Amino acid sequence: MKKSLLGFSVGVIAVCILVIIVLATGFWKRFFYQAAQEQHRIRIVIPRETGAERDFNLAEQRVWEENLNTKIAMNEGEIVVAILNHEFEGSFAEEQIAAYRKQTEIDGPVYVAFIKYDERSREYKRIWDAPTAATRSETISLFSQDLIGDINNCILITGMNNKNEHSMTVFRRSLRGTGEHTFKKIAELQIDGSIIIQENERSLAYQQGIARGSSHNIVVYGHDNTSQNILDQLETTYTFNPSTEQYGQSTVTRIPGSQIEQRRLRELLSGKPGVFENFINELWYYVSPQGTLDSRQFIYFDLAGKEIIFFGDENQQVFTWQNSTPTRYGLYITCQNISISTLKRSLFIELESLDSIRLRVTEDLRIKITVSASWDGSYRRAGNQVKTTETEKSIKQAINAAYDSLWGRLQFYDSGEYSINSNGSYPDAAARKGRYVFFTVNEQKLLELRPEGNDPQNGENRMVYRVDTKGNDIFLFKVRLGAGGIQDLLEPPIMLTKAENR
After folding, report:
1. Which of 20, 419, 452, 465 is at a distance of 20 to 30 A from 274, taking alpha carbons?
2. Region of residue 319 (phi > 0: left; psi between -120 and 50: alpha; otherwise: beta)
3. Does the global pTM surpass 0.70?
4. How many domains does the chain have?
Protein backbone atom coordinates (compact mmCIF):
# COMPACT_ATOMS: atom_id res chain seq x y z
CA MET A 1 0.00 0.00 0.00
CA LYS A 2 2.84 2.34 0.89
CA LYS A 3 4.57 1.53 -2.40
CA SER A 4 1.42 2.39 -4.37
CA LEU A 5 1.05 5.68 -2.49
CA LEU A 6 4.71 6.49 -3.06
CA GLY A 7 4.40 5.76 -6.81
CA PHE A 8 1.32 7.97 -7.07
CA SER A 9 3.14 10.83 -5.28
CA VAL A 10 6.15 10.54 -7.59
CA GLY A 11 3.85 10.60 -10.63
CA VAL A 12 2.07 13.75 -9.44
CA ILE A 13 5.40 15.49 -8.82
CA ALA A 14 6.64 14.50 -12.32
CA VAL A 15 3.50 15.91 -13.99
CA CYS A 16 3.86 19.19 -12.05
CA ILE A 17 7.48 19.54 -13.12
CA LEU A 18 6.54 18.91 -16.77
CA VAL A 19 3.81 21.58 -16.64
CA ILE A 20 6.24 24.10 -15.15
CA ILE A 21 8.76 23.40 -17.94
CA VAL A 22 6.11 23.86 -20.65
CA LEU A 23 4.95 27.16 -19.17
CA ALA A 24 8.50 28.40 -18.71
CA THR A 25 9.51 27.74 -22.31
CA GLY A 26 6.54 29.71 -23.60
CA PHE A 27 5.32 26.76 -25.67
CA TRP A 28 1.84 27.06 -24.19
CA LYS A 29 1.64 30.78 -24.97
CA ARG A 30 2.98 30.31 -28.48
CA PHE A 31 0.50 27.49 -29.24
CA PHE A 32 -2.55 29.54 -28.31
CA TYR A 33 -1.06 32.65 -29.83
CA GLN A 34 -0.80 30.98 -33.22
CA ALA A 35 -4.33 29.60 -32.91
CA ALA A 36 -5.66 33.09 -32.14
CA GLN A 37 -3.78 34.51 -35.11
CA GLU A 38 -5.44 32.00 -37.43
CA GLN A 39 -8.88 32.92 -36.14
CA HIS A 40 -8.44 36.67 -36.54
CA ARG A 41 -6.44 36.81 -39.74
CA ILE A 42 -7.47 39.56 -42.12
CA ARG A 43 -6.16 40.64 -45.47
CA ILE A 44 -6.92 44.20 -46.44
CA VAL A 45 -9.20 46.81 -44.98
CA ILE A 46 -10.29 50.30 -45.92
CA PRO A 47 -10.37 53.63 -44.13
CA ARG A 48 -13.26 54.25 -41.73
CA GLU A 49 -13.38 58.02 -41.51
CA THR A 50 -16.20 60.37 -40.63
CA GLY A 51 -16.99 63.91 -41.61
CA ALA A 52 -17.24 65.68 -44.93
CA GLU A 53 -14.36 63.79 -46.54
CA ARG A 54 -16.42 60.66 -47.18
CA ASP A 55 -20.07 59.87 -47.68
CA PHE A 56 -20.32 56.27 -46.52
CA ASN A 57 -23.13 53.98 -47.48
CA LEU A 58 -24.17 51.89 -44.47
CA ALA A 59 -23.79 48.74 -46.55
CA GLU A 60 -20.01 48.81 -46.22
CA GLN A 61 -20.22 48.59 -42.42
CA ARG A 62 -23.01 46.09 -42.02
CA VAL A 63 -21.51 42.61 -42.23
CA TRP A 64 -18.19 40.85 -41.68
CA GLU A 65 -16.57 44.19 -41.07
CA GLU A 66 -12.83 43.97 -40.82
CA ASN A 67 -11.10 46.20 -38.31
CA LEU A 68 -8.08 48.45 -38.24
CA ASN A 69 -6.45 46.94 -35.19
CA THR A 70 -2.67 46.93 -35.25
CA LYS A 71 -0.49 44.34 -33.55
CA ILE A 72 0.95 47.06 -31.29
CA ALA A 73 -0.30 50.41 -30.06
CA MET A 74 0.43 53.28 -32.43
CA ASN A 75 1.95 56.53 -31.22
CA GLU A 76 -0.27 59.33 -29.98
CA GLY A 77 -1.83 61.27 -32.85
CA GLU A 78 -1.34 58.50 -35.43
CA ILE A 79 -4.58 57.45 -37.15
CA VAL A 80 -4.55 54.12 -38.98
CA VAL A 81 -6.31 54.22 -42.38
CA ALA A 82 -5.43 50.82 -43.89
CA ILE A 83 -3.88 47.53 -42.83
CA LEU A 84 -2.30 44.66 -44.74
CA ASN A 85 -1.59 41.44 -42.85
CA HIS A 86 0.73 38.98 -44.50
CA GLU A 87 2.98 36.01 -43.77
CA PHE A 88 6.21 36.93 -45.52
CA GLU A 89 8.76 34.38 -46.62
CA GLY A 90 10.63 32.85 -43.69
CA SER A 91 8.30 34.29 -41.03
CA PHE A 92 6.72 32.03 -38.45
CA ALA A 93 4.07 34.59 -37.48
CA GLU A 94 1.86 36.98 -39.38
CA GLU A 95 3.38 40.39 -40.02
CA GLN A 96 1.66 43.68 -40.68
CA ILE A 97 1.91 46.76 -42.87
CA ALA A 98 -0.09 49.69 -41.50
CA ALA A 99 -0.85 52.90 -43.38
CA TYR A 100 -1.47 55.86 -41.10
CA ARG A 101 -1.59 59.64 -41.03
CA LYS A 102 -0.46 62.04 -38.33
CA GLN A 103 -3.18 64.12 -36.74
CA THR A 104 -0.84 67.09 -36.43
CA GLU A 105 -0.06 67.07 -40.18
CA ILE A 106 -3.35 68.01 -41.82
CA ASP A 107 -1.89 68.17 -45.33
CA GLY A 108 0.98 65.80 -44.60
CA PRO A 109 1.72 62.50 -46.28
CA VAL A 110 0.27 59.11 -45.44
CA TYR A 111 2.93 56.92 -43.82
CA VAL A 112 3.45 53.17 -43.77
CA ALA A 113 4.87 51.15 -40.87
CA PHE A 114 6.19 47.59 -40.78
CA ILE A 115 5.23 45.62 -37.67
CA LYS A 116 7.05 42.33 -37.13
CA TYR A 117 6.93 39.58 -34.52
CA ASP A 118 10.16 39.27 -32.54
CA GLU A 119 10.80 35.67 -31.52
CA ARG A 120 13.26 36.57 -28.79
CA SER A 121 10.94 38.86 -26.86
CA ARG A 122 7.83 37.03 -28.10
CA GLU A 123 6.06 40.26 -28.95
CA TYR A 124 5.41 42.49 -31.95
CA LYS A 125 7.70 45.44 -32.66
CA ARG A 126 7.55 48.37 -35.03
CA ILE A 127 10.56 47.94 -37.30
CA TRP A 128 10.32 50.54 -40.07
CA ASP A 129 8.39 53.67 -41.15
CA ALA A 130 8.35 55.71 -44.37
CA PRO A 131 6.22 58.46 -45.96
CA THR A 132 4.33 57.96 -49.24
CA ALA A 133 3.29 60.34 -52.00
CA ALA A 134 -0.40 60.13 -51.05
CA THR A 135 -1.92 62.67 -48.69
CA ARG A 136 -5.69 62.04 -48.87
CA SER A 137 -6.27 59.16 -46.51
CA GLU A 138 -9.80 58.46 -47.77
CA THR A 139 -8.39 57.38 -51.16
CA ILE A 140 -5.69 55.03 -49.87
CA SER A 141 -5.36 51.52 -51.27
CA LEU A 142 -2.73 49.25 -49.72
CA PHE A 143 -1.79 45.91 -51.28
CA SER A 144 1.11 43.64 -52.15
CA GLN A 145 2.20 42.23 -55.52
CA ASP A 146 5.27 40.63 -57.02
CA LEU A 147 6.19 43.40 -59.47
CA ILE A 148 9.79 42.30 -60.07
CA GLY A 149 9.13 38.62 -60.69
CA ASP A 150 11.55 37.40 -58.00
CA ILE A 151 8.80 35.72 -55.94
CA ASN A 152 9.06 38.53 -53.42
CA ASN A 153 6.04 40.76 -52.94
CA CYS A 154 6.38 44.52 -53.11
CA ILE A 155 4.21 46.85 -51.02
CA LEU A 156 2.12 49.26 -53.13
CA ILE A 157 0.33 52.31 -51.75
CA THR A 158 -1.92 54.25 -54.11
CA GLY A 159 -4.04 57.32 -53.45
CA MET A 160 -4.60 60.96 -54.24
CA ASN A 161 -2.57 63.95 -53.10
CA ASN A 162 -3.71 67.49 -52.29
CA LYS A 163 -3.41 68.50 -55.95
CA ASN A 164 -5.93 65.79 -56.93
CA GLU A 165 -3.12 63.89 -58.61
CA HIS A 166 -3.00 60.14 -58.46
CA SER A 167 0.08 58.72 -56.76
CA MET A 168 1.75 55.36 -56.37
CA THR A 169 4.60 54.50 -54.00
CA VAL A 170 6.28 51.08 -54.24
CA PHE A 171 8.54 49.51 -51.62
CA ARG A 172 10.54 46.36 -52.29
CA ARG A 173 11.35 44.04 -49.46
CA SER A 174 14.93 42.85 -49.06
CA LEU A 175 16.97 40.89 -46.53
CA ARG A 176 19.95 42.41 -44.73
CA GLY A 177 23.05 40.45 -43.94
CA THR A 178 21.89 40.28 -40.34
CA GLY A 179 18.77 38.41 -41.40
CA GLU A 180 16.52 41.40 -40.74
CA HIS A 181 14.01 42.50 -43.34
CA THR A 182 13.95 46.07 -44.64
CA PHE A 183 12.16 47.96 -47.41
CA LYS A 184 13.58 50.07 -50.23
CA LYS A 185 11.57 52.55 -52.28
CA ILE A 186 11.80 51.53 -55.95
CA ALA A 187 9.13 53.80 -57.47
CA GLU A 188 7.15 56.90 -56.56
CA LEU A 189 4.92 58.49 -59.20
CA GLN A 190 2.45 61.38 -59.17
CA ILE A 191 0.38 62.30 -62.22
CA ASP A 192 -2.71 64.33 -63.09
CA GLY A 193 -4.15 61.26 -64.82
CA SER A 194 -4.10 57.57 -63.96
CA ILE A 195 -1.50 54.98 -62.97
CA ILE A 196 -1.84 51.27 -63.72
CA ILE A 197 0.24 48.11 -63.43
CA GLN A 198 0.84 46.57 -66.85
CA GLU A 199 1.13 42.87 -66.09
CA ASN A 200 3.31 40.67 -68.29
CA GLU A 201 2.73 36.97 -68.81
CA ARG A 202 4.83 34.71 -66.62
CA SER A 203 5.87 31.12 -67.17
CA LEU A 204 4.52 28.00 -65.52
CA ALA A 205 7.88 27.61 -63.77
CA TYR A 206 7.32 30.98 -62.10
CA GLN A 207 3.81 29.98 -61.07
CA GLN A 208 5.30 26.90 -59.41
CA GLY A 209 7.90 29.00 -57.60
CA ILE A 210 10.99 27.46 -59.24
CA ALA A 211 12.02 30.28 -61.61
CA ARG A 212 11.96 34.06 -61.85
CA GLY A 213 9.40 35.85 -63.97
CA SER A 214 9.48 39.00 -66.06
CA SER A 215 8.95 42.33 -64.32
CA HIS A 216 5.65 44.17 -64.62
CA ASN A 217 5.65 47.69 -66.03
CA ILE A 218 4.04 50.76 -64.51
CA VAL A 219 2.13 52.93 -67.00
CA VAL A 220 0.96 56.49 -66.30
CA TYR A 221 -1.40 58.65 -68.35
CA GLY A 222 -1.03 62.40 -68.00
CA HIS A 223 -1.76 65.69 -69.74
CA ASP A 224 0.15 66.61 -72.88
CA ASN A 225 1.37 70.12 -72.04
CA THR A 226 2.39 70.77 -75.65
CA SER A 227 -1.19 70.39 -76.92
CA GLN A 228 -4.06 72.88 -76.80
CA ASN A 229 -6.61 70.05 -76.58
CA ILE A 230 -7.32 69.29 -72.93
CA LEU A 231 -8.03 65.64 -73.71
CA ASP A 232 -4.69 64.90 -75.39
CA GLN A 233 -2.58 62.62 -73.21
CA LEU A 234 0.91 61.18 -72.86
CA GLU A 235 1.32 57.50 -72.05
CA THR A 236 4.58 56.98 -70.16
CA THR A 237 5.90 53.49 -69.39
CA TYR A 238 8.26 52.80 -66.50
CA THR A 239 10.27 49.56 -66.40
CA PHE A 240 12.39 48.02 -63.66
CA ASN A 241 16.17 48.42 -64.00
CA PRO A 242 17.98 45.55 -62.18
CA SER A 243 21.27 47.48 -62.01
CA THR A 244 19.80 50.48 -60.18
CA GLU A 245 16.95 48.51 -58.60
CA GLN A 246 14.60 51.35 -59.54
CA TYR A 247 11.76 51.91 -61.97
CA GLY A 248 12.77 54.30 -64.74
CA GLN A 249 11.05 55.90 -67.72
CA SER A 250 11.39 53.83 -70.90
CA THR A 251 8.84 55.00 -73.51
CA VAL A 252 6.50 57.97 -74.08
CA THR A 253 3.54 57.76 -76.48
CA ARG A 254 1.14 60.57 -77.45
CA ILE A 255 -2.56 59.69 -77.33
CA PRO A 256 -4.78 62.21 -79.18
CA GLY A 257 -8.11 63.01 -77.50
CA SER A 258 -11.46 63.86 -79.05
CA GLN A 259 -12.33 67.40 -80.07
CA ILE A 260 -15.20 68.51 -77.83
CA GLU A 261 -16.99 71.81 -77.47
CA GLN A 262 -14.70 73.61 -75.03
CA ARG A 263 -17.34 75.30 -72.86
CA ARG A 264 -19.07 72.02 -72.03
CA LEU A 265 -15.70 70.33 -71.59
CA ARG A 266 -14.50 72.88 -69.04
CA GLU A 267 -17.78 72.56 -67.17
CA LEU A 268 -17.50 68.77 -66.86
CA LEU A 269 -13.82 68.91 -65.91
CA SER A 270 -14.13 71.87 -63.56
CA GLY A 271 -13.43 69.69 -60.54
CA LYS A 272 -16.57 70.88 -58.75
CA PRO A 273 -18.09 68.17 -56.50
CA GLY A 274 -20.95 66.26 -58.09
CA VAL A 275 -20.58 67.58 -61.66
CA PHE A 276 -18.90 64.55 -63.22
CA GLU A 277 -20.78 62.17 -60.90
CA ASN A 278 -24.08 63.43 -62.31
CA PHE A 279 -22.70 63.14 -65.85
CA ILE A 280 -22.02 59.39 -65.46
CA ASN A 281 -25.11 58.67 -63.35
CA GLU A 282 -26.73 56.11 -65.64
CA LEU A 283 -26.17 53.00 -67.75
CA TRP A 284 -23.04 52.67 -69.95
CA TYR A 285 -22.48 49.94 -72.56
CA TYR A 286 -19.06 48.54 -73.39
CA VAL A 287 -17.68 49.51 -76.80
CA SER A 288 -16.08 46.52 -78.56
CA PRO A 289 -12.74 46.82 -80.41
CA GLN A 290 -14.80 46.96 -83.60
CA GLY A 291 -16.55 50.10 -82.33
CA THR A 292 -19.96 48.50 -81.72
CA LEU A 293 -21.98 48.52 -78.50
CA ASP A 294 -21.95 45.26 -76.54
CA SER A 295 -25.14 45.06 -74.48
CA ARG A 296 -23.82 41.91 -72.76
CA GLN A 297 -21.33 44.00 -70.78
CA PHE A 298 -22.20 47.26 -69.10
CA ILE A 299 -21.70 49.36 -65.98
CA TYR A 300 -24.47 51.11 -64.12
CA PHE A 301 -23.62 54.08 -61.89
CA ASP A 302 -26.31 54.62 -59.26
CA LEU A 303 -25.42 57.90 -57.55
CA ALA A 304 -28.55 58.01 -55.39
CA GLY A 305 -28.08 54.45 -54.12
CA LYS A 306 -24.28 54.85 -53.84
CA GLU A 307 -23.76 51.67 -55.86
CA ILE A 308 -21.91 50.65 -59.02
CA ILE A 309 -23.14 47.56 -60.85
CA PHE A 310 -20.81 45.63 -63.17
CA PHE A 311 -22.47 43.17 -65.53
CA GLY A 312 -20.57 40.81 -67.84
CA ASP A 313 -20.45 37.12 -68.79
CA GLU A 314 -24.03 36.75 -67.51
CA ASN A 315 -22.87 37.64 -64.00
CA GLN A 316 -23.28 40.77 -61.96
CA GLN A 317 -21.15 42.36 -59.28
CA VAL A 318 -22.53 45.09 -57.02
CA PHE A 319 -20.10 47.51 -55.38
CA THR A 320 -20.66 50.23 -52.82
CA TRP A 321 -19.64 53.62 -54.23
CA GLN A 322 -17.33 54.76 -51.44
CA ASN A 323 -15.38 57.79 -52.56
CA SER A 324 -14.97 59.86 -55.71
CA THR A 325 -12.32 62.49 -56.41
CA PRO A 326 -12.31 64.81 -59.45
CA THR A 327 -9.24 64.55 -61.67
CA ARG A 328 -7.99 66.51 -64.66
CA TYR A 329 -9.75 64.14 -67.06
CA GLY A 330 -12.75 62.97 -65.06
CA LEU A 331 -13.12 61.03 -61.83
CA TYR A 332 -11.27 58.61 -59.55
CA ILE A 333 -13.61 56.25 -57.68
CA THR A 334 -12.97 53.69 -54.97
CA CYS A 335 -15.62 51.05 -54.38
CA GLN A 336 -16.08 47.86 -52.35
CA ASN A 337 -18.01 44.69 -53.11
CA ILE A 338 -21.20 44.57 -51.07
CA SER A 339 -20.78 40.87 -50.27
CA ILE A 340 -17.01 40.41 -50.11
CA SER A 341 -15.51 43.09 -47.93
CA THR A 342 -11.96 42.27 -49.04
CA LEU A 343 -12.69 42.94 -52.72
CA LYS A 344 -11.94 46.59 -53.43
CA ARG A 345 -11.84 48.20 -56.86
CA SER A 346 -10.48 51.53 -58.14
CA LEU A 347 -11.89 53.20 -61.25
CA PHE A 348 -10.16 55.84 -63.34
CA ILE A 349 -12.91 57.39 -65.44
CA GLU A 350 -11.90 59.77 -68.22
CA LEU A 351 -14.07 61.81 -70.52
CA GLU A 352 -13.74 60.60 -74.11
CA SER A 353 -16.64 62.52 -75.68
CA LEU A 354 -19.97 63.92 -74.55
CA ASP A 355 -21.53 60.45 -74.81
CA SER A 356 -18.56 58.18 -74.08
CA ILE A 357 -16.07 57.57 -71.27
CA ARG A 358 -12.89 55.53 -70.90
CA LEU A 359 -12.33 53.27 -67.89
CA ARG A 360 -9.16 51.88 -66.37
CA VAL A 361 -9.95 49.53 -63.51
CA THR A 362 -7.61 48.13 -60.87
CA GLU A 363 -8.61 45.78 -58.10
CA ASP A 364 -7.26 43.94 -55.12
CA LEU A 365 -8.66 40.50 -55.93
CA ARG A 366 -8.36 38.06 -53.02
CA ILE A 367 -11.19 35.79 -54.11
CA LYS A 368 -11.77 34.60 -57.67
CA ILE A 369 -14.98 36.03 -59.06
CA THR A 370 -16.26 34.10 -62.07
CA VAL A 371 -16.50 37.09 -64.36
CA SER A 372 -13.73 37.00 -66.94
CA ALA A 373 -14.71 40.23 -68.63
CA SER A 374 -12.09 42.97 -68.66
CA TRP A 375 -13.59 46.23 -67.51
CA ASP A 376 -10.94 48.41 -69.14
CA GLY A 377 -12.00 50.21 -72.30
CA SER A 378 -14.50 52.66 -73.71
CA TYR A 379 -18.17 52.85 -72.73
CA ARG A 380 -20.98 54.71 -74.44
CA ARG A 381 -24.01 56.20 -72.76
CA ALA A 382 -27.01 53.89 -73.13
CA GLY A 383 -29.50 56.76 -73.39
CA ASN A 384 -33.03 57.01 -72.12
CA GLN A 385 -34.42 54.92 -74.95
CA VAL A 386 -32.73 51.75 -73.66
CA LYS A 387 -33.72 52.18 -70.01
CA THR A 388 -36.53 49.69 -70.31
CA THR A 389 -37.90 47.16 -67.90
CA GLU A 390 -35.85 44.45 -69.60
CA THR A 391 -32.66 46.44 -69.01
CA GLU A 392 -33.45 46.78 -65.34
CA LYS A 393 -34.11 43.04 -65.18
CA SER A 394 -30.73 42.20 -66.62
CA ILE A 395 -28.98 44.53 -64.20
CA LYS A 396 -30.48 42.85 -61.17
CA GLN A 397 -30.71 39.29 -62.59
CA ALA A 398 -34.18 39.26 -61.10
CA ILE A 399 -36.87 36.58 -61.23
CA ASN A 400 -40.59 36.55 -60.60
CA ALA A 401 -41.49 33.51 -58.51
CA ALA A 402 -42.94 32.45 -55.16
CA TYR A 403 -41.73 29.72 -52.81
CA ASP A 404 -42.99 28.19 -49.57
CA SER A 405 -40.47 27.74 -46.76
CA LEU A 406 -40.04 27.66 -42.98
CA TRP A 407 -39.97 31.44 -43.16
CA GLY A 408 -43.36 31.53 -44.86
CA ARG A 409 -44.23 32.50 -48.44
CA LEU A 410 -41.12 33.98 -50.06
CA GLN A 411 -41.98 36.08 -53.11
CA PHE A 412 -39.26 37.25 -55.53
CA TYR A 413 -40.22 40.19 -57.75
CA ASP A 414 -38.61 41.07 -61.06
CA SER A 415 -37.93 44.54 -59.65
CA GLY A 416 -35.16 43.01 -57.50
CA GLU A 417 -37.30 43.10 -54.35
CA TYR A 418 -38.68 40.29 -52.19
CA SER A 419 -41.28 39.88 -49.47
CA ILE A 420 -41.96 37.19 -46.88
CA ASN A 421 -45.49 36.50 -45.68
CA SER A 422 -44.86 34.67 -42.41
CA ASN A 423 -48.51 33.84 -41.78
CA GLY A 424 -48.70 35.87 -38.61
CA SER A 425 -45.49 34.57 -37.05
CA TYR A 426 -44.20 38.11 -37.02
CA PRO A 427 -46.64 40.88 -36.20
CA ASP A 428 -44.98 43.47 -38.46
CA ALA A 429 -45.31 41.82 -41.87
CA ALA A 430 -44.18 44.98 -43.64
CA ALA A 431 -40.71 44.62 -42.10
CA ARG A 432 -40.24 41.31 -43.94
CA LYS A 433 -39.28 43.00 -47.18
CA GLY A 434 -36.05 43.87 -48.87
CA ARG A 435 -33.89 43.42 -51.94
CA TYR A 436 -32.12 40.35 -53.29
CA VAL A 437 -29.39 39.49 -55.76
CA PHE A 438 -28.04 36.26 -57.28
CA PHE A 439 -24.31 36.14 -57.98
CA THR A 440 -21.48 33.64 -58.46
CA VAL A 441 -18.25 33.17 -56.49
CA ASN A 442 -15.75 30.38 -57.22
CA GLU A 443 -18.33 28.75 -59.52
CA GLN A 444 -20.88 28.53 -56.71
CA LYS A 445 -24.24 30.22 -57.07
CA LEU A 446 -25.14 32.44 -54.12
CA LEU A 447 -28.20 34.40 -53.03
CA GLU A 448 -28.00 37.55 -50.96
CA LEU A 449 -31.00 38.98 -49.09
CA ARG A 450 -30.83 42.57 -47.91
CA PRO A 451 -33.85 43.28 -45.64
CA GLU A 452 -35.20 46.76 -45.11
CA GLY A 453 -33.81 47.77 -41.73
CA ASN A 454 -33.03 44.78 -39.50
CA ASP A 455 -34.48 41.37 -40.17
CA PRO A 456 -36.95 40.74 -37.31
CA GLN A 457 -36.04 37.06 -37.24
CA ASN A 458 -32.31 37.29 -36.56
CA GLY A 459 -31.41 40.98 -36.51
CA GLU A 460 -29.05 40.73 -39.51
CA ASN A 461 -28.76 43.40 -42.18
CA ARG A 462 -27.60 41.03 -44.89
CA MET A 463 -27.74 37.26 -45.32
CA VAL A 464 -25.87 35.21 -47.93
CA TYR A 465 -26.81 31.65 -48.88
CA ARG A 466 -25.28 29.03 -51.12
CA VAL A 467 -27.95 27.84 -53.58
CA ASP A 468 -28.44 24.17 -54.42
CA THR A 469 -31.29 22.97 -56.62
CA LYS A 470 -32.88 19.53 -56.68
CA GLY A 471 -35.69 19.31 -59.19
CA ASN A 472 -38.06 22.19 -58.51
CA ASP A 473 -36.86 22.60 -54.93
CA ILE A 474 -34.15 25.04 -53.80
CA PHE A 475 -31.97 24.54 -50.73
CA LEU A 476 -30.32 27.56 -49.10
CA PHE A 477 -27.20 26.98 -46.98
CA LYS A 478 -26.13 30.00 -44.95
CA VAL A 479 -22.54 31.07 -45.60
CA ARG A 480 -20.13 33.89 -44.85
CA LEU A 481 -17.82 35.50 -47.40
CA GLY A 482 -14.42 36.81 -46.45
CA ALA A 483 -10.74 36.75 -47.33
CA GLY A 484 -10.67 32.97 -46.90
CA GLY A 485 -13.44 32.40 -49.42
CA ILE A 486 -16.88 30.89 -48.77
CA GLN A 487 -17.35 29.65 -45.20
CA ASP A 488 -20.30 27.36 -44.51
CA LEU A 489 -21.92 28.30 -41.18
CA LEU A 490 -23.20 24.72 -40.75
CA GLU A 491 -26.77 25.80 -40.10
CA PRO A 492 -29.71 23.60 -41.21
CA PRO A 493 -30.63 24.38 -44.83
CA ILE A 494 -33.75 26.31 -45.75
CA MET A 495 -35.87 24.44 -48.29
CA LEU A 496 -37.83 26.47 -50.84
CA THR A 497 -40.70 24.72 -52.61
CA LYS A 498 -42.23 26.34 -55.67
CA ALA A 499 -45.65 27.69 -54.72
CA GLU A 500 -48.53 26.66 -56.93
CA ASN A 501 -50.61 29.78 -56.32
CA ARG A 502 -49.08 33.23 -56.02
Report:
1. 452
2. beta
3. no
4. 3
